[in-house]
Amino acid sequence: MLGDNVSPDNAPFLKILPVCATLCEIKLGELVHCQIVKMGFENYLFLQNGLLDFYAKVEDLSSARKLFNEMPERDVVAHNAMISALGKNGYIVEAHKLFDGMGEKKASS
């Protein structure tokens, strides 16, 4: 699409990221992330969740944490992806704290 000067909407990115994660194509996933930012889609919550899920599945905890911490809005999907990433990487206490913090945020809303 991009080679034909056709600008995609944000939908193809949601299809590409899980494939990158399944195939453990970290560099391709990072390129997709860069393209999302370049096209101005970086603040779409569902794309942020897709990226978070990608980084969690390829066990890039550093990128997952950075993305999660920079998200202006976090929903249950984002929390679940981050909790899963932390747990899979042995950060059980931190995962539990994040889980416990989800209820606090709801109570204060």
Shape: globular
Quaternary arrangement of the chains shown?
A: single chain
Cα-to-Cα separation, first versus last residue: 42 Å
Structural class based on helices, strands and sheet pairing: mainly alpha
Strand/helix succession: HHHHHH
Number of domains: 1
Stretches where pLDDT is under 50 for at least 5 consecutive residues are none
Number of strands: 0
Helix content: over 70%
Beta-strand share of residues: under 5%
Tally of DSSP helical segments = 6
Short description:
The protein is mainly alpha-helical and 109 residues long. The protein contains six helices and no strands. The N and C termini lie far apart (42 Å).
Describe this structure in words.
This protein is mainly α. It has one domain (2-108). It has helices at residues 11-22, 26-38, 45-57, 61-70, 76-88, 92-108. It is globular, with a radius of gyration of 15 Å. The N and C termini lie far apart (42 Å). The mean pLDDT is 89. This is Pentatricopeptide repeat-containing protein.
